[in-house]
Write a structure and sequence with these properties.
single chain, 146 residues, mainly beta, OB fold (Dihydrolipoamide Acetyltransferase, E2P), 2 domains, 5-stranded antiparallel beta sheet, 3-stranded antiparallel beta sheet, 1 helix, 8 strands, 5% helix, binds zinc ion, NA-bd_OB-fold
């Protein structure tokens, strides 16, 4: 499927977030790190929300975290996602600190529900449009490109 035929919503790639998407394409979760206070932030921002410094670098993140919250989506809010319900949205507290909203990538129907503080790790599965989107897995084994 070519990108033009892909019907799901995708974030725009901008000069500011391009390092994040370049990382995803390379199988790395990247975060901005403030050069003054050292805190990581997500999503990208022109200034640090803690100290307002505009100095930052992009760093490879661990790709690990824990489930802070989740919900199972049964409603078909978007036609493009109708074939995927039910799916599980998760808020993940990354090891570096920021919260990221994503989906659980590998929970089959009938699997136990996720639980608070459950360890997860990032996985990248290119969608039919060719963009690698970070998702999270509770599985012990990481299989890149799965
Ligand atoms: Zn800062």
């Amino acid at each position: 499927m070519d990108v033009a035929a892909y019907e799901k919503l995708l974030p725009d790639i901008t000069p500011r977030n391009k390092p994040f998407w370049d990382g995803c394409a390379e199988g790395e979760l990247r975060l901005q790190q403030c050069s003054d206070c050292g805190r990581y932030r997500f999503p990208d921002a022109p200034v640090c929300p803690q100290c307002l410094s505009s100095a930052a670098t992009w760093q490879k993140a661990s790709g690990t975290g824990t489930i802070w919250s989740w919900c199972t989506m049964h409603q078909k809010y978007f036609a493009a996602f109708a074939d995927e319900v039910p799916y599980q949205l998760v808020y993940v507290r990354l090891t570096e600190g920021p919260l990221v909203i994503s989906v659980l990538a590998d929970e089959p129907d009938g699997a136990p529900e996720p639980h608070l503080d459950q360890p997860v790790h990032v996985v990248f599965r290119p969608n039919p449009g060719g963009r690698a989107i970070p998702q999270f897995s509770t599985a012990d084994t990481v299989t890149a490109g799965k």
